[in-house]
Every structure is written in C-alpha cells, then in structure tokens.
Amino acid sequence: MSTIAAHNISWTIRLASAVALLACFPAAPAQRQDWPEYVPSQVSGIIRVCGSPQMSEMLRREEAAFQQVHPSVRFVNSLNSTITAVTGVSSGRADIGLLGREIWPSEQEAFVSVSGHRPTVIEIATGSYNVPKATFALMIFVNRANPMRSLSLDQLGAVFGADESAPPPVWRDAGLAGAWARRPIHLYGFARDNDKARIFGRLVFSRHLHWAAGLHEFRNIAGPPAIDAGEQIVRAVAADPEGIGISNVFYALAGVRVVPIAPRSGAAPVTPSRATIADRSYPLWRSVSAIIDGEARTAAAPAVREFLRFIISRQGQAEISQVGTYLPLTPEVAGRQRSLLSTLAP
C-alpha cells in the first residue's frame, strides 16, 4: 500500500466528524457546485509561512491534516503580524503570507515594485461572524430610539460618505421622514487608517465619495483597562439617539439595534447572522486570504500550491469549521480559488 493510500484510511475517519459541521451552514442550492474534493499529488519540502497570529490555530490544524497525507512536508511558521505577510513573500523570506485582513493597494504596489508582478491572492476562508480580531463582518448600529429599520449600501454611502461640497448628513439621507427627516446624523466608526474603515470604504463608497467630515473616529485603548474601538463605538451610539456606528454584534448593548443592509436599492435587506455571513448574502462580509508569489519557481512552489489546494478543498474547509473562528468559503468561491491555482505554472 502506498504512503498516500495508508494515510487516507485514517484521514477518512477523521474527516467524517469535521464534514458533519459543514451541515450547520445553509444547504447549497441544487445548481451550486460542491466543495472541491482533495485528491493528493505527491509533494515534499519545507513551507515557510508568515503573517497574522490570529490565524495560528487554523493554520496548525490545516498543517497537521495536510501532513497526514504528506508526511515529508515540513512547516516553518513565523506568525508575528499581518504586516509581514506581503513583505515576507515579496522578500523571499516566506512562501505563504497569511493576511488577517484584505490586502491593501499600497501592499500590492510594493510587491510589484520588488518582484515586477502582482502577488497571487487566494481566499482561504470567510471572516468571522463575531470573533474579535478575526476579520469580523462589519455591522451597522443605531440607537434603540431611532425608527430606522433597514438601509441599502447606497444609503450607507450617503450617510458616511460625502462629496467635497456636501452638507452634513441628516436622517432624511438615510430614508427617514417626518420628525426625524431634518435631525442631524452623528457618525461613529473606526479610525480611517484602520483595516475595518478601509474595507468599509471599499465596499460602500463610490469613487467620488470619501469619509464625511463629521465622523467620530475610535482606536483601541491599550489600557488598563483595555477597550476595543468596536466597544467604544457601540457605547457612543447607545448614548446618542441620533448616532449611527460601524462595529460588530460582539460588542452589542441593550441600547442599540443592528440594522439589516440591502446590497442595492430595491433589494431585500439582509440581517447579519452566522449563516448570512457564511453564504455572503449579507453585503458587509470580509475575507481571509493567503498571499503567494504565483510566478515563483522555487523548490517549495509545488508543495505551497498543493497545500493551498488542500485548504480550499472539502477536507481543508472542514478543518476551518472545526476551529470555529473563521467561516468556510462558499462552494463557488472555493471553486474559483481552485481555478486560480490551476492557472499557475507547476
């Protein structure tokens, strides 16, 4: 019996309970493809991984499961900071960079300036529903006294974004009428250079918009006591009937409500939940990605691509489900990542 076949016997037993967890997520409609099944190709070597320390448990499980099938592959991890993910790969110090957030345009440009080409970005999971520091989905909060029931992305842009000459936003801009129409909107959010503010702007603002001048910006307080920016934002909204803030349900208080968001004007609003973030129907979801040099011809390149192919497979996504911090990719997204990997030269 071959090494791969022998390891597959124990692998099948281990996989059964993990796959069962995937059933907790919404059933895929009949027309959707299933998660790609992992069929191993023999590889060996050392894979160096750098990047986000928040992804260490997920990475540990993926590596252990991969080594059951590929015992000759060894991993060297250096998970110190998301900031090292792109520079680690572009400098050749790492083969894989794990991003605890979306890649920034400046990082893309820096990679090109060093290597002469863009990095290959492979989505490996969807961000969390309500886990701090785990790329959680962004949610919109209003005070309990506010009659707002839902918003579209266009309305969010009108509220949080502004043209150069735009007046301060009022609640009419968010669709409220009557006594609320002319009341001012008080904006609360993350500091503009924070990754959450950056991705919010990318998801919500059109090209001619930028952050409204009246935004109250919050950063984490190191303490003691330590207070996350997301908690400060929700507290501010709870104390301000005219406030609206960007945060996460992890920080929710009795004095606020989460506002369902419609992906476009006229569409049905979607309430954020574990299920609607996992299937990406809620529009303010976030992704978790791995960065590689897709044109690398190093000795480790075949093993690197094989490992990523494993992570986006049914088996690898089952490991993500078991950890429970991040959410699995949808089958469609997993299939697109597999197609992207297949275009890379072996």
Describe what is shown at a glance:
With 346 residues, the protein is of the alpha/beta class. It has helices at residues 3-22, 56-69, 83-90, 105-115, 153-160, 195-204, 229-238, 274-278, 301-311, 314-323, 331-342; strands spanning 45-51, 73-78, 96-99, 120-126, 139-143, 151-152, 161-162, 186-190, 210-211, 216-218, 243-247, 256-258, 261-262, 287-292.
Task: Describe the protein in words.
This protein has about 350 residues and is α/β, with parallel strands linked by helices. The chain folds into two domains: about 180 residues, D-Maltodextrin-Binding Protein, domain 2, CATH 3.40.190.10; about 130 residues, 3-Layer(aba) Sandwich (D-Maltodextrin-Binding Protein, domain 2). Helices cover about 35% and strands about 15% of the residues. The strands form four sheets. A five-stranded mixed β-sheet has the order 2-1-3-14-4, sandwiched between helices. It has a five-stranded mixed β-sheet with strand order 10-8-11-5-12, covered by helices on one side. It has a two-stranded parallel sheet with strand order 6-13. Helix 1 crosses helix 10 and helix 2 packs antiparallel against helix 10. The longest helix is centred in the N-terminal third of the chain and has 20 residues. The N terminus is likely disordered.
Distance between the termini: 27 Å
How much strand content do the residues show? 15-25%
Strand order of the largest sheet: 2-1-3-14-4
Topology pattern, helix = H, strand = E: HEHEHEHEEEHEEHEEHEEEHEHHH
CATH architecture of the largest domain: 3-Layer(aba) Sandwich
Determine and state the CATH class of the largest domain.
Alpha Beta
- Quick one: biggest sheet? 5 strands, mixed
Mean pLDDT reading: 89
Q: Structural class per helix/strand content? A: alpha/beta
The total beta strand count reads 14
- State the low-pLDDT regions, or none: 1-32
